[in-house]
Specification:
By secondary structure, this protein is mostly helical. It contains three helices and two strands. It has a two-stranded parallel ribbon. Helix 1 links the parallel strand 1 and strand 2. Helix 1 packs across helix 2.
Amino acid sequence: MPLVTQHFGMLFRNLVYTGITRTKKLVVFVGTRKALAMAVNKQNTAARQTALAYLLRQTGM
């Protein structure tokens, strides 16, 4: 899993967690400890743009 500070906009805790939990056998971090620390300490609080509520209303759920 690449963790570099050049792409600090993608360093979020939930993305690291997803990368770790989706692996089958082994995860290898490639990058810097600073980038990992930035990701672990940063939560993505942006609202997600999904159509889930709309789709649920359309199906009658």
